[in-house]
Design goal:
The protein is about 50% helix and about 10% strand. A four-stranded antiparallel sheet has the order 2-3-1-4. By secondary structure, the protein is an alpha+beta fold. It has a domain of about 90 residues: Alpha-Beta Plaits, CATH 3.30.70. About 10% of the residues are buried. Helix 2 packs across helix 5, helix 5 packs antiparallel against helix 8 and helix 6 runs antiparallel to helix 7. A hairpin with a 2-residue loop joins strand 2 and strand 3. The protein is built from eight helices and four strands.
Length: about 250
């Protein structure tokens, strides 16, 4: 029997095509199938951990592309449906420079986290402003609405229909009520009374279902507090605009 010189070849294919590929090799009748050499170990089936890592990276890359796509110049419908062309050399360079690619992804993710932080701070400031706005006509510093040695003070809201009853209850008492403003069915009021009338004032407020408001740790008038918050809001918006411009210029 003649000895035919054999050549070693390595075939790399999709795992889903494994059976079909083997059938093709069997039809040749002169192929001996052996285990893949060690240098192809990275491509063997069963590398689930590596596959999961690759899929996770692909997911991050797709997400980053989507984020950056928001800054792409607007084009016509046909242009937006076409894929950008890249030469083989450019494709290979992008593959080889995966570290730089993931660096871009890291940067986009960092900016997204920063943007989320800025949005959270903006929402917090907006909530504070919404709480303060009904009190903008309170013209004394909020730290002076606290009890003193000889007086008790109350800041809060009651239903509009309770105001006449409160005014009647305070008539003849060493107490003053200032109506700050209204918002829908609520009236915002500030009351100061001598300590000798504290029990009667508290009972009248309890009957009117008074809801107390506390300016804890704040100083200055409400108008001043709103001005400070407005400046903080503008500063946060400037930081958000800077993040947008950073990618828009890339």
């Amino acid at each position: 029997m003649a000895i035919v010189e054999m050549k070693r070849v390595a075939l790399l294919g999709m795992n889903a095509d494994k059976d079909a590929l083997l059938r093709v090799l069997q039809r040749f009748g002169c192929v001996q199938v052996t285990e893949a050499p060690e240098e192809l170990a990275d491509y063997r089936a069963g590398g689930s951990a590596q596959l999961a890592d690759v899929q996770e990276q692909l997911g991050r890359i797709r997400w980053a592309i989507g984020q950056l796509g928001r800054f792409e110049p607007k084009q016509g419908m046909l242009a937006s449906m076409s894929m950008p062309e890249a030469s083989e050399a450019e494709a290979l360079a992008a593959y080889d420079d995966s570290a730089a690619l993931m660096g871009v992804v890291d940067a986009v993710e960092a900016c997204e986290r920063r943007s989320g932080d800025l949005k959270g701070q903006t929402a917090r400031i907006r909530a504070q402003m919404d709480q303060l706005l009904p009190w903008r006509n309170l013209d004394i510093p909020v730290e002076r609405t606290r009890d003193t040695k000889s007086t008790v003070q109350f800041v809060g809201t009651v239903n509009n229909r309770e105001l006449p009853a409160l005014e009647t209850a305070f008539d003849g008492l060493p107490a003053e009520m200032e109506h700050i403003g209204d918002e829908r069915e609520l009236s915002f009021i500030w009351i100061i009374a001598h300590r000798s009338a504290a029990a009667q004032v508290q009972e009248a407020l309890r009957t009117a279902e008074f809801a107390a408001v506390h300016f804890t740790g704040e100083t200055g008038t409400v108008a001043q507090l709103l001005d400070v918050l407005t400046e903080e809001q503008r500063a946060l918006q400037s930081q958000r605009d800077a993040l947008e411009n950073h990618f828009d210029k890339q």
